[in-house]
Write a structure and sequence with these properties.
11 helices; 287 residues; mainly alpha; Cytochrome Bc1 Complex, Chain D, domain 2; three-stranded antiparallel β-sheet; 3 strands
C-alpha cells in the first residue's frame, strides 16, 4: 500500500510513501558517486564493443575496430620463445659439456631445460628430488655405478643401461644360486661377508674371503670397491641400491638384479640430453 511521504524521526530520513504490513520504506537512494561509476562503466563497455572483439556471431565474432586477436598475440609470443630456444639449443649442440658448465648463459639455459626434462622423464623413477628409491639410484650422492663425470653421465643417459641401444651400458651379475655356481650355505656366508665390508663388527665364516675372490673379485675388485667399467658397485661404502639387510643380499646374490634404464637417445634430441646431463651433474653427486 502507499501513503504520503513523511519524515522519520528515528533515522532522520524521509520515507518513499510505500508501506507494507506496518513497515515503511525509507528513501535512501544510491550515492551519487556510485551511480556515476555505473554510468561510466556502461559507456566504457559500449566503447569496448566497438573497438575490441566482443560479440559472438553464428559462424564468427565481431572483430572490432582495432582487429585485435589474443590468439595471434599468444602464437607470436610462442613463436618468439621457440626461436629463442632454437638459438640456445644450437649453441648447446655445438658446445662441449665443460664449456656449457663454464658459460653462464648456456649453463642457465641448460639448467632450466634439464630440470624440466628431468621432471617429465626421470622423476617417475628417481623421484622429484632425484633421491631415488629401492632399485633406483640416488643421483644426489657420489656413488655412481657407471661414473659420475659429465661425460659419463651424458653417456649413460644417451645409451641407457641394459636397454635396446646398440651401445647400451651392460653388465650381468650371475645368479649364483640359479646358475648353480654356489650353494645356499655359501650364498649365506657370502651375504655375511658383504655385510662385513661396511660393518666390521659383523662376523664372517672362515673361507668366505676365498670364495669372494674366486667368484666376485673379477668385477667388484679384490678390495670390493667396485669397477665403473663394469657397472659393479662398491660394496664397502654402505650405499645399497636394493637394500643392505642379509635377506636382500641373499636374494641379490642368488638371483641377480637386472635393472633397466631406457636409452634417451631415441626419445630426446642431443641438445636436450646435454641439458639433462648438466642438470644431473649439478645435483651434488657429480664428479
Amino acid at each position: 500500500m502507499s501513503t504520503e511521504p513523511e519524515y522519520d524521526e528515528v533515522t532522520k530520513t524521509y520515507t518513499t510513501g510505500h508501506e507494507w504490513d506496518g513497515i515503511k520504506e525509507l528513501n535512501t537512494p544510491l550515492p551519487r558517486w556510485w551511480l556515476w561509476t555505473l554510468y561510466a562503466t556502461i559507456i566504457w563497455s559500449i566503447g569496448y564493443w566497438i573497438v575490441m572483439p566482443a560479440w559472438p556471431l553464428i559462424n564468427d565474432h565481431t572483430r572490432g575496430v582495432l582487429g585485435y586477436s589474443q590468439r595471434d598475440t599468444v602464437n607470436a609470443e610462442l613463436a618468439a620463445a621457440k626461436n629463442a630456444r632454437l638459438i640456445f639449443s644450437e649453441k648447446l649442440l655445438n658446445a662441449d659439456l665443460e664449456t656449457i658448465e663454464n658459460t653462464p648463459e648456456l649453463l642457465e639455459f641448460a639448467m632450466a631445460g634439464g630440470k624440466a626434462v628431468f621432471g617429465d622423464n626421470c622423476a617417475g623413477c628417481h623421484g622429484t628430488g632425484a633421491s631415488g628409491a629401492k632399485g633406483y639410484p640416488n643421483l644426489n650422492d657420489d656413488d655412481w655405478l657407471w661414473g659420475g663425470s659429465l661425460d659419463e653421465i651424458h653417456e649413460t643417459i644417451t645409451v641407457g643401461i641394459r636397454g635396446v641401444h646398440d651401445d647400451t651400458r651392460l653388465s650381468d651379475m650371475p645368479a649364483f644360486l640359479t646358475d648353480d655356481m654356489l650353494d645356499k650355505d655359501q650364498i649365506k656366508n657370502m651375504a655375511d661377508y658383504v655385510v662385513s665390508l661396511s660393518d666390521n663388527t659383523h662376523t664372517v665364516p672362515e673361507g668366505t674371503y676365498e670364495v669372494f675372490q674366486e667368484n666376485c673379485a673379477a668385477c667388484h675388485g679384490e678390495n670390493a670397491k667396485g669397477n665403473k667399467d663394469f657397472g659393479a658397485p662398491n660394496l664397502t661404502d654402505g650405499i645399497w641400491l636394493y637394500g643392505a639387510d642379509k635377506e636382500t643380499l641373499i636374494s641379490t646374490i642368488s638371483y641377480s638384479r637386472k635393472g633397466v634404464m631406457p636409452a634417451w637417445a631415441d626419445r630426446l634430441d642431443p641438445a636436450t640430453i646435454k641439458s639433462l646431463a648438466v642438470f644431473i651433474h649439478s645435483l651434488g653427486g657429480g664428479k
